Amino acid sequence: MSEPSLGKQFTNGLWAENPVLVMLIGMCPTLAITNSVANALTMGAATTFVLICSNVVISLLRKQLQPHLRMLVYMLIIATFVTIADYALQAYLFEMSQALGPYVPLIIVNCIILARAEICASKSGPVRSFVDGVGMGLGFTFALTILGVIRELLGMRTVLSYQVLPEAFVPWVIMILPSGAFLTLGLVIGLVTWLKTRKPADSRQNKDLEAAA
Amino acid sequence: MSVDTAKEPQGDVVSSGPGGLEVQPAPHLTDPITTRRLMLDVIIALIPAFLASLVFFQWNSLRVLALCLIGCLATEYLFNRVRNKPNSLSDLSAVVTAIILAFSLPPTLPWFAVLMGAIVAIALGKMFFGGLGQNIFNPAMVGRAFLMVTFASLMTTWVAPAAEPGPPVPTDRVEAVTAATPLAQIKPGDPERPLPETWRLFVGRTAGSLGETSVIALLIGAAYLLIRRTIDWTIPFGMLGAALAFAAIAYLAAPGKFANPMFHLGAGSLVFGAFLIATDLVTSPLSKSGRVVFGAGCGVLTMVIRQFGTYPEGVMFSILMMNALAPLIGRWMRPTPLGGKARG
């Protein structure tokens, strides 16, 4: 199997195999903390950091890994970086750390990180693993931020705590409740799927136009 | 017999070609009941309640109903257009959803909330599942539940009905007088508070949702549906029976704490729910015994929410919860095949 180019590896995580919107993994933080944009961005940054670091370290160790012990090693590496991220948040962004509650430590069990370790980092070199980590991390952050913007805007009239919608707009309380997370996620996934499946029809149309011309 | 054909009697009679031999699945007997006919019956049955709401809430009644109709029909039309499906407006099911949703809303709900409820009812409640017959939950109740969570304070602001006796209202300065619904009145658990007389509950001259207040008007419509056999006795019997039994036991056990059963029958949307919402063919079980259990579940849950929950009214949540259980009940109590023995 020929390896895709590094650029493709990067955009893969952003769009084609976006962990949240296409692969539907990492649902727990996606649903739990996207009620504001600030939460979503922090969570995305922390996860991206852990993802990049663990991808690179696992990639460097990939020749030494015993097949039956690899999961254990993955977990230890991931847990190390999650602890670093957790303590860094507590030290520098204490309030945010309180707001995110148990979801920062829970990055350890985030499927995305384990999946990338297994799919990419354990089979490819450190550069490719790094690019993959950045792409997947940004894709995760991107999805979380979209949900965060929609939910904060409609639920509290604000984006990043700046009021955007006028006073006359009655906030949709449901959007900052868990049920709003499910509704928004479902609608966004539907929209993304529609955008992705619409493409072939467009190119066919273009071909038709070209043929007609 | 597939579940879908039985759930939604479309009445498409498969005709065998001349001289052709066709193998068809049972049932071989069909009748000319169409979805459109059933829905039309429900609409006719809702007319008395609409007239009552016109009397009690006047212009607001018309406004909310019109907005619901616009929202529901436009959403259904757009969904069919976008998905290249045949237009399903003519089966009138969206009209029924719109009317039931309108009847379950407070009269003074602002226009954007009404429209949003209507759009959510059809889009989230029905079209996302694939249209009529595929939906798990009653679409109108999905719309109302969405509004209840989204605009909790708007959804619990009630106005007194027109011609309410009491201190004179300076109508030139105020638009409407807010009032508590009978169920909200008993909620604080203060037995000293004056409750509306039972006759007023049955006529419908109380604060409440548009169509739910007049029990008599609803019963006229329900009688029409029962005579036309659009609905049968099972669900209303189960729901009202269970709710009344529950209320009676609670009343006998602690008369000072709980209201009497007749009050619970007349107040809120118990009668509306039992005859017109819970009886939705798509979201209730198939077998008779299943429907009785379904109705009883609705009734018990309603009373549990009313008497022990934080919400004053529980009809909507109880019906949604039992909707979720309907497939399970259907599996547990299968309809007896014609001429066959009931399977365990």
Features:
heterodimer, A: 213 residues, mainly alpha, two-stranded antiparallel ribbon, 8 helices, 2% strand, B: 344 residues, 15 helices
Secondary structure: elements and pairs:
The complex is a heterodimer of chains A (213) and B (344).
Chain A: H1 6-16, H2 27-32, H3 37-61, H4 70-92, H5 94-100, H6 111-121, H7 126-156, E1 158-159, E2 162-163, H8 178-212
Antiparallel strand pairs in A: 1-2
Helix pairs in contact in A: 1-7, 3-4, 3-6, 3-7, 4-5, 6-7, 7-8
Chain B: H1 3-7, H2 35-57, H3 59-82, H4 93-103, H5 111-123, H6 139-150, H7 152-155, H8 182-186, H9 198-203, H10 215-227, H11 234-253, H12 261-266, H13 270-277, H14 288-308, H15 315-332
Helix pairs in contact in B: 2-3, 2-4, 2-10, 3-4, 3-5, 4-5, 4-6, 5-6, 6-15, 10-13, 11-13, 11-14, 14-15
In short:
By secondary structure, chain A is mainly α. Chain A has eight helices and two strands; from the N terminus they run αααααααββα.
Can you walk me through this structure?
- The complex is a heterodimer of chains A (213) and B (344).
- With 213 residues, chain A is mainly alpha-helical.
- Chain A has one domain (6-212).
- Chain A contains eight helices and two strands, in the order αααααααββα.
- In chain A, a hairpin with a 2-residue loop joins strand 1 (158-159) and strand 2.
- In chain A, helix 3 (37-61) runs parallel beside helix 6 (111-121), helix 3 runs antiparallel to helix 7 (126-156) and helix 7 packs across helix 8 (178-212).
- Chain A is globular and about 60 Å long.
- The mean pLDDT of chain A is 89.
- Chain B has one domain.
- Chain B is built from 15 helices and no strands.
- Chain B has helices at residues 3-7, 35-57, 59-82, 93-103, 111-123, 139-150, 152-155, 182-186, 198-203, 215-227, 234-253, 261-266, 270-277, 288-308, 315-332.
- Mean pLDDT of chain B is 82; it is low at 1-13 and 165-171.
- Classes of the chains: A mainly alpha (213), B mainly alpha (344).
